[in-house]
Amino acid sequence: MTPDAAGPGPLARIAEGLERMTGRAHRVDGSEVVGPGTTSLVIASHPEVVDTEQSAHLDIGFALNRARDDSTVWDRASGFGATRSDAVNAAVDAWLQTTAPVVLELLTQEGTFADHYSSAECGLPGRHAIHGAILGWGVGDGPDQLQQWWMANPVLPLIAPALEHREWPVLGALRVFFGSQRGQSTAEVRLNGTPLVQAAELLLQQDWPRFQQPAYARAFILSIPE
Asked: What is the DSSP letter of 121?
């Protein structure tokens, strides 16, 4: 992934959102957002992803230490809207709601931004999980029902059998996404951007509700050594 000249719009929206969440200054400096201390954020390009006038996919990197490449937590956020600008804004807002709080919680360790789960709770031996908010989107009450199902059936322990023997990086960024429309179900689990096919298949086998109208849920989880 390489830094992308995303323009000031999404970067400014990220800076404003983080400043609102933390109460600390974040400013746009060229092609990045510079935060307090050593933190910074960039938006990167992914040539294989094709955006449209109604969709946007942004790879956002949150660097814990901007002097070290291995300290960046990446996640891809998707957004949809009537215009390209609406889609970009929706993608940024999804990232601010799901991914940013997890990284902020990693930095603060106060339980303010996201929830913490021990290895026994998340089903991953030797790993601690920081779990962000469950975001639902779509039409009708389907997204709410998916959120309720996820809260009643924690997903991480359900897919843990496909994850427990994996060699984990120090910062294991998990993106979990699933939902359905018109009878077609989809599930995706990625670790630092790499698809985890077996984990996605386990998720597809679960009894979460399916819908004819679009209904999806996603969350971001950071797995770190316990």
From this structure: H
